[in-house]
């Protein structure tokens, strides 16, 4: 019989690893986790299913400001959060993040640590519950455990990628050990790969509504292809052939395909048509209305006045924007870019003069010294990162379409991985092995964007650029820049670096203070 001590594993280790509750400008209340005891141990099938689904629900933090996605995107060449006069200084967090001046005391890194460990340790707890229940059939149990092991592997993948050496806590860990020692990064990486491979045979190969927003066999293989592409960065040993083989499993399986319309993958109704053959392989499902903590990009990126354009329920925050250098990397004929000043043509970016819903009456910025005077014009050029970036400077992130009348949380499901990435992973793995014909897969992506074919003479720099244009603001750019040895390059408002220190973030100070066995990453 499962012991009370064992049942407390999640809450006990959680207390040691998640040193403090986190807060942001939304003044969230800290989440309270209850102990699993014999009195509240899930016993019914519905309770078991709820427990299993809760580990997926924890992923909802991804779309919020001030945590994992934010620190990755703003630190890349894709995005910035400028200091706009009296707005968005936030203690300098985002200025330092963009310039690669990471500080362990900056709160967003601790938020990311907390959220990722919350998911990993919650998975441990629910795995332990399911292993010791008779409330579901053996077949159902095997499927749930395979999903949870894959999901836990994903949480640990993000942890090792972001922070390097991290404590690897599994269901067999001592629940009384509140100061776990960090495991070397390469060992955590090997655990992740091993878990994905071990879980794969018991995962469903179905692609319809029953597996939507869950990890099926194909999503597991797609995620593995991404992780294996990064093996050389993490372990020093390249695994290009294995990355290609994982991608081939998905491609040859024929369960997914590219959507005809790129933006169908990111629209507010991108959960429609769940009958198989879709491009989004694994998503975080969001449903509006939601409280803060959902997918808040509409708030995070739009100017205050754009509330009127989209009839938004709440005034936006006028923060996130893209960089001109990245915006200009798109050809004007690229259907993913959008048209300057044309709100009728959807694009990854919203740029140019902005209008009221009639499409004719200009919106008013209200700051006369901004470009264009009082009228609101999203300029691709960002005049400064601080202290007086224009309030309308920077093209805004429109990849995830804004629904008319949207609340502060959007209902667009966020794609963790798409079939398009599988094709690009296949192409990159072939290219790195000096195999011919890889451009065929790149051209499938380019052609959908309205661009002409390229050939196998493309450079690594061009491959990186192709990935950037396709996967803008999907959370993979930092990994790509590091893998292509471009992370230390200079870009808008960020100087070149001569050290690899900044390829991982610092261990957050609250975690060091709470756990004497943790060591700060070199250079911090």
TrEMBL record:
* Annotated signal sequence range: 1-26
Give the UniProt subcellular location, in the record's own words: Cell outer membrane
Keywords for this protein? Cell outer membrane, Membrane, Signal
Q: Which residues form the RagB/SusD domain?
A: 312-524
Report the GO terms under cellular component. cell outer membrane
Xref: InterPro entries: SusD-like_N, SusD_RagB_dom, TPR-like_helical_dom_sf
Q: Which SUPFAM superfamilies match?
A: TPR-like
Domain SusD-like N-terminal residue range list:
88-229
Query: What family is it from?
Result: Belongs to the SusD family.
Q: What is this protein called in UniProt?
A: RagB/SusD family nutrient uptake outer membrane protein
Originating organism? Neolewinella marina
């Amino acid at each position: 019989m499962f012991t009370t001590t064992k049942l407390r594993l999640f809450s006990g280790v959680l207390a040691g690893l998640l040193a403090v509750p986190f807060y942001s400008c939304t003044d969230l209340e800290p989440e309270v986790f209850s102990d699993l005891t014999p009195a509240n141990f899930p016993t019914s099938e519905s309770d078991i299913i709820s427990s299993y689904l809760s580990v997926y629900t924890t992923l909802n933090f991804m779309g919020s400001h001030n945590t994992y996605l934010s620190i990755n995107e703003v630190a890349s060449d894709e995005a910035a959060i400028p200091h706009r006069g009296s707005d968005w200084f936030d203690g300098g967090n985002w200025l330092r993040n963009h310039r690669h001046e990471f500080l362990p005391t900056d709160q967003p890194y601790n938020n990311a640590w907390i959220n990722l460990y919350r998911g990993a340790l919650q998975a441990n707890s629910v795995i332990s519950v399911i292993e010791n229940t008779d409330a579901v059939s053996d077949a159902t149990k095997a499927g749930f455990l395979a999903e949870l092991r894959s999901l836990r592997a994903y949480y640990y993948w993000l942890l090792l990628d972001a922070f390097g050496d991290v404590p690897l806590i599994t269901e067999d860990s001592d629940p009384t050990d509140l100061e776990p020692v960090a495991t070397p990064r390469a060992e955590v990486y090997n655990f992740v790969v091993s878990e994905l491979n071990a879980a794969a045979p018991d995962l469903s190969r179905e692609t319809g509504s029953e597996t939507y927003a869950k990890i099926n066999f194909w999503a597991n293989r797609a995620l593995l292809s991404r992780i294996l592409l990064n093996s050389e960065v993490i372990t020093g040993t390249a695994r290009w052939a294995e990355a290609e083989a994982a991608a081939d499993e998905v491609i040859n399986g024929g369960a997914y395909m590219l959507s005809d319309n790129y933006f169908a993958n990111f629209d507010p109704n991108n959960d429609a048509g769940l009958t198989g053959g879709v491009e989004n392989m694994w998503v975080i499902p969001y449903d509006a209305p939601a409280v803060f903590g959902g997918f808040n990009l509409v708030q995070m990126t739009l100017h205050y006045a754009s509330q009127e354009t989209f009839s938004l329920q709440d005034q936006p925050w006028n923060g996130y924007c893209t960089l001109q250098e990245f915006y200009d990397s798109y050809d004007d004929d690229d259907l993913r870019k959008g048209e300057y000043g044309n709100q009728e043509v959807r694009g990854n970016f919203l740029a140019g003069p902005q209008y009221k819903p009639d499409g004719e009456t200009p919106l008013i910025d209200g700051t006369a010294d901004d470009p264009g005077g009082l009228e609101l014009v999203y300029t691709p050029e960002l005049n400064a990162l601080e202290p007086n970036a224009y309030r309308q400077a920077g093209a805004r992130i429109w990849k995830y379409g804004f629904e008319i009348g949207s609340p502060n949380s959007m209902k667009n499901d966020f794609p963790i991985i798409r079939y398009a990435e599988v094709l690009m992973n296949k192409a990159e793995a072939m290219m790195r092995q000096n195999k011919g014909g890889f451009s065929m897969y790149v051209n499938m992506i380019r052609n959908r964007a309205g661009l002409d074919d390229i050939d196998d003479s493309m450079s690594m720099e061009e491959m990186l650029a192709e990935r950037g244009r396709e996967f803008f603001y999907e959370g993979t750019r930092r990994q790509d820049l590091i893998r292509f040895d471009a992370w230390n390059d200079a870009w808008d408002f960020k100087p070149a670096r001569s050290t690899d220190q900044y390829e991982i973030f610092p261990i957050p100070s609250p975690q060091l203070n709470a756990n004497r066995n943790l060591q700060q990453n070199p250079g911090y």
